[in-house]
Amino acid sequence: MNGFSVRREPGGSRVIASEVPLGAYPATVCEDLVAWAAREPDAVFLAERSGGAWRGLTYGEALLRVRSLGAWLRSSGASAEAPLGVISENSIDHALCMLAALYVGIPVAPISAGYAAPESSTDRLRGMLDALAPSLVFAGDTKIAARISAADDGVRIVTDPAPLAGEASLADEAFSRVDGDTIAKIMFTSGSTGKPKGVITTNRMLCANQAMIAMVWPEIDGARPVAVDWLPWSHCFGGNHNFGIVLHNGGTLYIDEGRPAPGAFNATLRNLAEFPPAVFFSVPRGYVLLVEALHADAAFAATFFSRLRVICNAGASLPDALRRDIIALAKTYGTSSVRVTSSWGTTETAPLATTSWGTHEPDVDTIGTPAPGVEIKLAPSDGRAEIRVRGPNVTPGYWRNVAATRDAFDAEGFYKTGDAAELKDESDAARGLLFGGRLAENFKLSSGTWVNVGALRLSLVERGAPLIEDVVVAGHDRDEIAVLIFVSRAHAARLAGASEIGYAEIPRQAIVRDRIAEALGRHNASAPSSSTRVARALILTEPPSREAGEITDKGSINQRRALELRALAVQTLYAEDSGSEVVTAPALRMAKA
After folding, report:
1. Fewest CB within a 10 Å sphere: which of 154, 181, 350, 553?
2. How far is CA 292 from each of CA 201, 262, 288, 321, rounded to the nearest angstrom?
3. Residue 477 domain boundaries
């Protein structure tokens, strides 16, 4: 049986660790590419749609191209001190640039293409480029290139890596000097708690993390899994975790052009039907849409689960009802070996730090238990416990930011995540950790009472699913809690008996208002204290904006940014003459927003 030790320290901290030691792992990421190119040179590694058809790249082809491109990067002036920036959607060219840099020991910094969108300010992009000081930047297309130039006209930009070639033997010589301490990536944080920072990600971090994943999910260890994935490589979940699983295990990654959004998700469904995955990863928004499709089409559900081994959520907590629905569907259409699991981690932990694993599975409402080789400290913080992490998957610090690096670690070398958690059962650590949201999102009411935003948000979404997609919690220094509600437009249309409905029309539907009122009533009945009871609510008439920073790359709501952007809505929530726009307890009558 998988066991866990719990060490109690002076001051009230507890350190939890697996008693199973971490196994051996490669020194560098590209050792996996070299190994699979030798073992299965004709196996498809990556595939993307091109002109309606699929374009594939084999492991053998990938290594040849990576060596040649890596040599060119070295000759172009890129180095350990002059990184490569990549601003692009997921693509084969993106992957080749990333792997070429890794092969020859050049840090690569994948930056979200959203920061180069026409509707986005260039300020954030300019700040990242200033912090990075790249030797050159690969831009996914000419539009992105133009935005990069607008942010910094001195940056050298490449839009087509195909003609770039160098002497492969020079790349091989550089590869021989790459080791576990060599910086592989500089991953910029989403900035949900402040200015984005460049997280140093070493080869050791990435390789150790894949060794952990292989141990906790033996179903995919060396099994050459098929994955269909949209999650952006500028974020650690998509770029480190998912891409790494495919590469480490010799699998095939079909790059999904879809997104978990109305309309855009149809492409994802088409790809999943064409290439049933062995591993599937998404965020809560994606699972809401997926579950709707699985219920609506039994044939698609049977195809989707036909070879699925692991289905994992990360990025934000799943409401209990949605989690139970996924488990029920897996039992109906899949095999008994389908693992439905959740994970937790951060950009600074490469990312996986905890997950459900072992012969004694943690409870499904938890984020699991520490992976092999990981120590989790629960450190007291304003009446709660901060998750702190130590292990070979943890960053050594931030790119050219000594102050941020110093502040990120405690005296024992644990990384301070800013997330909260507690053991579900103090007498049995194997039952897992209950996630408590971000400490920085929490606030005090005017009474001095702390509000746990993560738990409150999850409770409201759970009681309002599938109509309530997400909420933004307000109330800092106020007498009572109020929330802004994002509603599922598709579900609102079904309730209203319409084929589709505009966001501005949703609050005018009586049945929608009634359902939200009922959800708020259920929440308040179960959580009547001042720190949990919602006094006011407002249905928002615009969806959250990824471009404006309301949604992070992993699909979760940036609470602080949303409150900033929707300051007028918050004023309406607390205005004395808000009238019918705001629902108040206990009557819970909802009118238009």
Report:
1. 154
2. 37, 12, 6, 13
3. 442-584
